[in-house]
What does this fold into?
Amino acid sequence: MFPEFFLNYVDYFQPLNVFRYITFRTGGATLTALIISFLLGPFLIQNLKKFQSIGQPIRDDGPTSHLIKKKGTPTMGGLLILFAFLCSTILWSKLDNILVWIILITSTIFGFIGLCDDWLKVKRRSTKGLRGKYKLIFQILTALIAVYLINQQFPMDYKNTVSLPFFKELVIDLGIFYLPFGILVIVGSSNAVNLTDGLDGLAIVPVMIACLSFALISYLVGNINFSNYLQITYVPGVGELAVLAGALIGAGLGFLWFNAPPAMVFMGDTGSLSLGAFLGSTALAVRHEIVLIIIGGLFVLETVSVIIQVISFKLTGRRIFKMAPLHHHFEQKGWEESTIVIRFWIIAVILALIGLSSLKLR
It folds into this structure.
């Protein structure tokens, strides 16, 4: 909105030319989303508390400390992230870019699926919300459309292809298998973030770290000079996604203000599913799907811990971890919540640096 409006007056006031630059608009989107979050946060939390008499239902089979420390805390805080993200993106991005709309709508639909799940949990006063199979069906259908539309935006040589990190020219053409692969990336990323969201501030900071990484990747991939220098695939128009990533970073920072221990609000599935969908769809758009596995390695570890736990229990009747996902395992071992959260943040930073290094080490 801002670029289309202000660039009409560049001839009368030259400084308005800054709205052409992705870096300027990314910074503007970050600050705008942060301010919106700060202003809206107290009002939203107050109303969520009125709506949710008992707050988010806490698992009986979870850590016993959660039944004491987290009882009564409202959920659906992801609404704050989504609203700030959407408003800021619409204000600062170029709205004639189809990729912007695909990722915006995909993230919003996943957020709506999560909202339905959170609402049913609160209404029923139970940890069981939207039935798992229905949630998965809606996610797959949304991801199917998103992957198809994203893939259609690229030249024929780039369609259905996946680039491998740390290799200069190794590109795999998945053909008809690209569609299920893309669905797996979006749905898997969405649910991986959801599994990680179990402690105050645990999920939102790694998400922001991943967003910062993909803001840089988007900018480099969308710039023909940088992409040629780094020998990575140049994708026209994808640099605009840096603005979306900036908006999400600002929204995440604002949410963290209220989610810092002890949390005043939880993001719920409303936030975690939409955040994960954003990361997955952005990774597809910039053609760095495998790099997402590295940068989002913390989410992968959390997911794998659940898979291992379930398989082990069904096959042997024994559990590998004291509790899954992985952060609960360390809680059961006696680690303080703040210790787990900060150490997981450190892991997220290290993995992001490894993922970003793949841009140069080829």
